[in-house]
Specification:
Layout (H helix, E strand, L loop, with lengths): L5 H8 L19 H6 L4 E6 L7 H10 L2 E4 L5 H4 L9 H12 L3 E9 L5 H4 L3 H18 L6 E6 L22 H12 L4 E6 L8 H16 L5 E4 L2 E2 L9 H9 L4 E9 L3 H16 L4 E6 L25 H10 L13 E9 L5 H11 L4 E4 L1 H6 L1 H9 L3 E4 L12 H17 L7 E2 L8 H9 L3 E2 L4 E2 L8 H8 L7 E5 L3 H16 L3 E2 L1 E2 L6 E2 L12 E10 L2 E9 L4 E6 L5 E6 L2 E4 L5 E5 L6 E7 L8 E6 L1
Helix pairs in contact: 7-8, 10-11, 11-12, 11-19, 13-19, 16-17, 18-19
């Protein structure tokens, strides 16, 4: 486990976007969602219905767990202005008063929306509708002036599908500037509130709807339109699954100079799968310094707008679900209290890396799950991909020796055995991976002679206890099932280069935690999995934040901002057939594949950029940072 001081956690939370995992100690870890989020400078909120404030179970959970409140329906248009220019704040004030009397902040939802309009507004059009809309924005925002942390000023203004167009609503038909003038009216009415654009299905940065919102925000920022934040509703289900690039989406919006807020989170499902998805969303927010916080859209499953999906953190009886535990654990940095390791430690191990096409995804998955692993690298891969060795070290992984060329070691002479191991030691050391203390023989083939050679180089020979069979085509489910056989002190054989193996990580970690097991290190003395050595913490240092720049049909610009250090090394990994064709504000070099660029300061500050010729692959680069 990785343990840092609370002060270190707070500092990291303001800038964390890289691969370093920074967590509070178990003694400092809070025990509720709101308190744990507050330790990172964020909030964790819920939607509250005024009609349920007499439900003791409902209010007990809400008061205990959450520190931000959104009125579920009570501040929407039909509730606050049922008749034109006749405003009714009774229900909205009830939610607001409950929140403030219990020491919670308020998000306002929503001022301008095509849906839940009162009948009189639905019957207006043109200038009359425009004026009525602006009056509504002004009156409601003025009534709650000074009480609202952030307003969802405009809600759901873009069309679904692949057009990237605005939604064809009565508000849109008043003129394309209706969103802009709504934001300006809201700022005039309540200068102290953050002003957000809020929408659903903008979770994948590669989708047309998301790109359209990105373009609008970029335009607004360039022209001084007062937009402070983007709200991602994050309603995930089988029709709109959690995308693998969700964190990149948050980073992209943040790179435009606005905050991001996850505003209506709910995730269809139950058990481990749902828990893993909640953990991934939470970790994505924690990784982006401008992610202010998370709001779940309801308290219990039975309070949800889609109760059949059981999408929330508490079941209908108010019991904490696995998703709750996963979310709280993520908020506390992925650390687990000692009692959760009551059954000991196991070692997750990955052979045959590093590989440009898979290692970045593997490291991201391990980081997202809050665990460290042992990487048995071959020397030839280490020499060819030095930047990825540095990325493994930066992510806090233990780096070990797996021979230079992956031969059948027992067919070699003693001198050849020594050469295989010593050249690998040198390649890893030269790449910044330290001096390995562990050696895993290829194919698990070993004897006394080989172990003596390894020992002479300071290496403990280890094999494995459980074989995942990923090398033999095992599916993600089969890999997870294999890991389910691990017991205290054991290690599992996995490999760097398989997508199914990467996909298994969240489920493996969740299962281990459910069984009171934690991911640990392999002891160089015994070869068994043990608690991480306090003298071998993951390195700290800097974080690198990627954001999109301009794009064209055949290329796009990217920008990387480095925080936490002035002397840094950033690796930028692109995917074939992509290639970087121009750079600025950094001294750069490439590995032998041309897929991994290493950037260092050149006196132009801590922000640099580059142009990627994408060749049809729109995947955004992976970046990692190491302080030097």
């Amino acid at each position: 486990m990785i343990r840092r001081s609370l002060a270190a956690l707070a500092a990291a939370a303001l800038a964390a976007t890289g691969l370093a995992v920074l967590v509070p100690t178990s003694a400092e870890a809070a025990t509720t969602l709101g308190a744990s989020a507050a330790q990172t400078g964020r909030y964790f909120g819920t939607a509250i219905s005024a009609g349920k404030l007499n439900d003791a179970t409902y209010t007990t959970i809400a008061n205990r767990e959450f520190d931000m409140v959104t009125a579920e329906n009570e501040m929407k248009l039909d509730a606050t202005e049922p008749n034109q220019n006749q405003f009714n704040y009774t229900a909205g004030d009830r939610v607001a008063n409950w929140a403030t009397s219990n020491g919670k902040r308020l998000r306002g939802h929503t001022l301008a929306w095509h849906s839940q309009q009162p009948g009189w507004m639905q019957n207006l059009s043109g200038t009359a509708l425009r004026n009525a809309m602006l009056n509504h924005v002004t009156q409601v925002a003025t009534h709650y002036r000074g009480k609202i942390y952030a307003w969802d000023v405009v809600n759901e203004a873009f069309a679904d599908g692949s057009s990237g167009a605005r939604r064809d609503s009565n508000l849109q038909r008043t003129g394309n500037d209706w969103i802009e003038v709504s934001f300006r009216a809201a700022r005039a009415a309540d200068p102290g509130a953050k002003l957000c654009y809020n929408d659903y299905n903008i979770d994948n940065v590669d989708h047309a709807k998301t790109k359209a919102v990105v373009a609008m925000v970029r335009d607004f920022k360039s022209r001084g339109v007062p937009i402070d934040c983007v709200g991602l509703q994050a309603h995930f289900n089988s029709g709109n699954p959690l995308p693998s690039n969700f964190q990149t989406t948050l980073s992209t919006f943040a790179g435009l100079g606005v905050d991001v807020q996850i505003t209506e989170l709910d995730i269809q499902g139950s058990g481990t799968d749902q828990a893993n998805k909640y953990r991934q969303v939470t970790n994505a927010c924690l990784a982006i310094s401008r992610c202010n916080g998370i709001t779940v859209w309801g308290v219990r499953d039975t309070d949800s707008w889609r109760p059949g999906d059981t999408p929330l953190l508490f079941d209908g009886n108010g019991n904490k679900k696995a998703a709750y535990t996963a979310t709280l654990d993520a908020l506390n940095g992925g650390s687990t209290p000692p009692s959760d390791c009551r059954n000991g430690y196991v070692a997750l191990t990955y052979d045959d890396g590093p590989n440009p096409g898979t290692t970045p995804a593997l490291l991201n998955a391990l980081r997202a799950a809050g665990v460290r692993a042992t990487m048995f690298n071959t020397g030839q891969n280490a020499a060819a991909n030095a930047a990825l060795i540095a990325a493994q070290a930066s992510a806090g992984m233990w780096i070990a020796n797996h021979s230079y060329t992956h031969p059948h070691m027992l067919t070699l002479s003693t001198a050849a055995m020594s050469s295989e191991l010593s050249r690998t030691q040198t390649a890893i050391q030269n790449a910044g991976g330290g001096t390995p203390k562990l050696f895993r023989p290829p194919y698990g083939e070993t004897n006394a002679t080989l172990e003596s050679v390894a020992s002479g180089l300071g290496l403990k020979t280890i094999t494995w206890d459980v074989d995942s069979q990923d090398w033999n085509g095992a599916t993600t489910a089969q890999i997870v099932q294999a890991a389910g056989r691990l017991t205290n002190g054991q290690s599992i054989l996995m490999h760097d280069q398989y997508a199914a193996t990467v996909a298994a990580i969240p489920q493996i970690v969740s299962d281990l935690r459910s069984r009171g097991l934690c991911a640990g290190m392999i002891s160089p003395a015994t070869g068994r999995a043990v608690a991480p050595d306090a003298t071998n913490p993951p390195p700290g240092g800097c974080t690198a934040t990627y954001s999109d720049g301009q794009s064209w049909p055949d290329r796009f610009n990217g920008q990387v901002a480095v925080t936490g250090a002035s002397n840094w090394t950033v690796t930028v990994t692109v995917r074939a057939p992509q290639r970087i064709i121009a750079t600025w504000n950094a001294a750069v070099s490439w590995d032998t594949t041309g897929n991994v660029m290493t950037a260092r300061p050149n006196g132009s500050g801590n922000t640099f950029g580059f142009t990627v010729l994408h060749g049809g692959n729109q995947t955004r680069p992976t970046v990692t940072c190491t302080a030097t």
